[in-house]
Design goal:
CATH architecture: 3-Layer(bab) Sandwich
Order of helices and strands: HHHHHEEEHHH
Structural class: mainly alpha
Shape: globular
CATH class: Alpha Beta
Strand content: 5-15%
Number of helices: 8
Number of domains: 1
Number of strands: 3
Helix content: 40-55%
Strand order of the largest sheet: 2-1-3
CATH superfamily: Iron/manganese superoxide dismutase, C-terminal domain
Radius of gyration: 28 Å
Largest sheet: 3 strands, antiparallel
């Protein structure tokens, strides 16, 4: 046998031994599993207003809305977050991941908008003041013109779903009214200041299908000091 043949044989044997060793080690390694990551827990905010004193919206309606519908959104957000934390994203079917992310976005939006909704209700009527009042006149022409658009958007959501949102857009440095047909929609890049819930759980117990009366009641119950506080914070974004 020539030296070349001996060297080729030795190299082949070495490669074979190396392959066998790698194969043996791979058989000993446990299968890859998803790494659980810590997930922040959302906690329902307490109802800070006295529901007995909000004109136009009954105490039972407000309590049920807060304790059931809002609390359910928080529970869903936490449950979806825990499930996502356990997933191996390289192995999960895209359809399952897509559904979970859709549910996460809807629960996140619902949680945040509900908190703004309840924080934005007053026990006594107030009017916009300070910087927010100036901004409403600047960006909508007048308070009455802002109100007409906000109310009109609410009436366009007569099917028992959706939100009307007054928000500040930091990119454009202006206020905007947005129409969200469901919990998955929200103005991109904008900071919500005031949210009117148009889902039937927000009004049906008091007004049935008469959304116009509910909208009138909501407009008289706005806590403008909360919206102005959020506006001042948003301007620093």
């Amino acid at each position: 046998m020539t030296d070349i043949s001996r060297r080729s044989l030795a190299m082949g044997a070495g490669l074979l031994a190396c392959g066998l060793a790698v194969g043996a080690r791979s058989q000993q390694m446990p299968p890859q599993v998803a790494i659980a990551v810590p997930v922040p827990k959302a906690t329902p905010k307490p109802l800070i207003l006295n529901p007995e004193k909000v004109k136009g919206l009954s105490a039972d309606l407000l309590r049920n809305h807060h304790d059931k519908d809002y609390a359910d959104a928080v529970k869903t957000l936490n449950a979806v977050g825990e499930e996502l934390a356990r997933l191996d994203f390289s192995a999960v079917p895209p359809e399952k991941l897509g559904k979970l992310k859709r549910d996460e976005q809807a629960a996140q939006n619902s949680t945040v908008l509900h908190e703004i909704y309840f924080d934005g209700l007053a026990e006594a009527p107030t009017q916009p003041a300070g910087l927010l009042a100036q901004a409403l006149s600047r960006d909508f022409g007048s308070l009455d013109r802002w109100k007409a658009e906000f109310v009109g958007i609410g009436k366009s959501l007569a099917s028992g779903t959706g939100w009307v949102i007054l928000a500040y857009a930091p990119r454009d440095k202006r206020l905007v009214n947005s129409r969200a047909e469901n919990d998955s929609m929200a103005p991109a890049g904008a900071v919500p200041l005031l949210a009117m819930d148009m889902y039937d759980h927000a009004y049906a117990a008091d007004y049935g299908t008469d959304t116009a009366k509910y909208i009138d009641a909501f407009m008289l119950a706005i806590k403008w000091t909360n919206a102005e506080r959020l506006y001042r914070e948003a301007m620093r974004v």
